[in-house]
Amino acid sequence: MGFNPLISEGESNSPKRTYRLNVLTSQKCAFTLAEVLITLGIIGVVAAITIPTLLSKFQMKVFETAFKKQYSVLQNAINYTVQVEGISACYGYKPNDSISYASINADCVALKDSLISLLNLTSIETPSTYKYATKNEVLSDGGKTINSYCNYDVYASNSNFLTKDGSIVTFYFDSSNFPIIVLDINGLKGPNKWGYDVFFMTLSNHNQYNSLEQKIFLTDEFCSIVEKGGRLPRTILTNKEKTEDDDFTILWK
User: Fold this and answer.
1) 91: which DSSP letter?
2) Counting CB atoms within 10 angstroms of each CB, which of 66, 142, 186, 225 has the fewest?
3) How many CA atoms lie within 13 A of 96 on its CB side?
4) How far is CA 158 from CA 73, 122, 123, 125, in A?
5) Cα separations in angstroms, 172 against 15, 139, 150, 154, 168
6) Residue 14: pLDDT band with limits 50, 70, 90
7) 238: phi > 0 → left, psi -120 to 50 → alpha, else beta; which?
8) Under a CB-based contact definition with an 8 Å cutoff, are residues 101 and 92 in contact?
9) pTM for the structure as a whole
10) What average pLDDT score do residues 114-131 get?
11) Cis peptide leading into 191, omega within 30 of 0?
12) Beta bridge partners of 225
């Protein structure tokens, strides 16, 4: 046994020695109140910095999942209408050797009616305060557009339809514009922001010149708009993290 200065000679097996050893081995280190408060303060600062970011990313993921679902439902309904019902003359396109764009609108009313029936959409009247940011508001706040000549100033109107799970689909089909569909995946709930829970898309026909197949695509090829921090439909559908990864050309990626 090694030498222990706290135990005198002759006490190696005494009750006094046992007591002293119990006292020594039972002593534990502890934090002071000041140290505890400092630690809690550091944890609070870190939480205040990280939690809002985590919540924001979580919310964007929720929006992303909902958008992909609604986009798939809409595109499948469009495919059915084109292939089964033969309704296909409703899309925007770029004529050969032209710098401008054109649209085919003959079947737009029939397409709209078919989608309303297939998806069991319900027409709704929205409050007068229910509207989205205008193009000028978006651009002045750091947002971006694809094709600034498009009419992005979309307000609530009787062309709004409610899906079975609470999303809003808005059709803007007229002979002077591309066939436009606005998808608000969050319904009447906020934030009602372009590229977050609201997406501006048009219909196009990529196969007009190089395929016999008649098909209409729901895309952001000709027109789309996002507020600062928002994402284009193409960004979400190609599983990119941010819209800044795109070059905002008018070509579908």
Assistant:
1) E
2) 142
3) 4
4) 22, 11, 7, 6
5) 95, 22, 12, 9, 13
6) low
7) alpha
8) yes
9) 0.76
10) 87
11) yes
12) 145
Q: Tokens for 42, please give them.
A: 């550091």
CA distance 165 to 131: 20
Helices marked H in the chain:
15-26, 33-85, 108-118, 135-140, 233-237
**Listed residue (54, 63, 82) closest to 231, CA to CA:** 63
Question: How many other CB atoms are found less than 10 A from the CB of residue 64?
Answer: 17
What does the block give as tokens for 139? 């651009």
Q: What is the DSSP letter of 145?
A: E
Residue 103, Cα to own-chain centre: how many angstroms? Answer: 28
Q: DSSP labels for 189-250?
A: SS---BTTTEEEEEEE-TTTTT-S----EEESSS-EEE-TT---HHHHHTT-S-GGGS---S
Q: Count CB atoms within 10 A of the CB of residue 8.
A: 11
Residue 107 confidence (pLDDT) above 60: yes
**Per residue in 101-131, is it b (16+ CB within 10 Å) or e — as a string?**
bebbbebbebbbebbbebbebeeeebeeebe
